[in-house]
Amino acid sequence: MNVDKELFLWSIITGKQDLALLFWARGKNKICAALIATLLYKIKARKDKDPSYNALADEFQNLAVQILEKFYLTDPGACTKAIIRQIPEFGNATWLHLAVMIEAKQFIAQEAVQHVLSDIWYGYIDHIEDNRLIIFSTIMLWYSGFLHYHQEMVERTEQFPSKSFNSSQKSSFIHHNTSRLQHQMNKTADKARLRLMQDMQDEEEGTVRVVGSRRWKNQSFRYGRHRHNQLATTEIILVVWLFALLCDEIRQIFEIELKSIYGKIIAYFSVFWNKLDLLAIFLFFLGFILRIWPTTQCFCAARIILAVDLSLWYIRTLDMFVAIKHLGPKLVMIGEMVMC
Fold it and tell me: Of all helices (H) and strands (E), which one includes residue 59?
């Protein structure tokens, strides 16, 4: 057990800032510890409605920023790797996850973090690649094979395809949980921590569990992301809505004044917008099925498919402007008739 870490967390929860700074200076992983302190102080400020905790949170965030700046100036490569490296001492949390959770804008705005976000945005694609070629490859997918990639990252992923996935599954810090806090603690400090966190459980759809200590295990913090394995109310409404649109498209086919089913289908698909409607509906249900499939790969594929599907629905809205072009003169005529 890391005594300095335990005493550091205890001093944060009990509001002893001087002791917190002392144990923070004595401990390791100072950036991660400072971000944890920022998270706890913001929760205390929100629960107790005491703005003084926000000032303490900003103090620890400034400490994390100062260390990050010096680290990046000394060794940019090691710094960018450290930002996304899991810290076992704090439940496999990463600096980037913590910064996003607490909305540490000052920390995220640093050049080192922006460099990491650019790497995540580009994926394995080399930054020297022209943006126009990248955009072109999104339209012509076959061209993506001609882009320049970071070969070392590709080879490392091919050699260890499941290692990174398993480590993300085992991350005990970024673990979503919406149930009420059940674990009861005996000591006074633990009970204070329990009261601090208990009211925060059901305020949002997802929470994050911290498992960095043997005694303080089932503590949960707010986390603004929705859980992958649970459907939101808006998603259910959207599924019902799209199913109603599918039924309406089927109704349109049968209402075509032709005797044979084959003739009705041919007549229906002769209209461009009908083809686009069915394609958009099909992609939505395909993405929805992959979205509820309990694997990370399917969830990522669902996000891609639903993004393409959303662009099709944007194109579909252009049909309204076609109608307005014909409707415009009629509105003018009706207006003139009313004026008379």
Answer: helix 52-74
226 forms beta bridges with none
Half-sphere exposure of 80 (CA within 13 A, CB side): 11
Among 197, 165, 170, which residue's Cα sits nearest to residue 183?
Answer: 197
CA distance 81 to 125: 17
221 phi and psi angles, rounded to 5 deg = -115, 160
Beta bridge partners of 210: 219
Q: Delimit the domains of the chain by residue range.
A: 1-122, 233-339
What residue type is assigned to position 94 of the chain?
T
Dump pLDDT digits (tens) for 70-120.
999 988 888 888 888 888 888 888 888 888 888 888 888 888 888 888 777
What does residue 126 show for φ and ψ, rounded to 5 degrees?
Answer: -70, 140
Residue 77 burial by Cβ neighbours in a 10 Å radius (0-12, 13-18, 19+): exposed
- H or E element that contains 80: helix 76-83
Single out the residue of 22, 119, 40, 46 nearest to residue 76, CA to CA: 119
Element (H, E) at 208: strand 206-210
Rounded-to-integer distance, Cα 153 and Cα 159, Å: 10
pLDDT at 158 over 80: no
What span, in angstroms and rounded, lies between the C-alpha atoms of 196 and 282? 47
pTM over 0.70: no
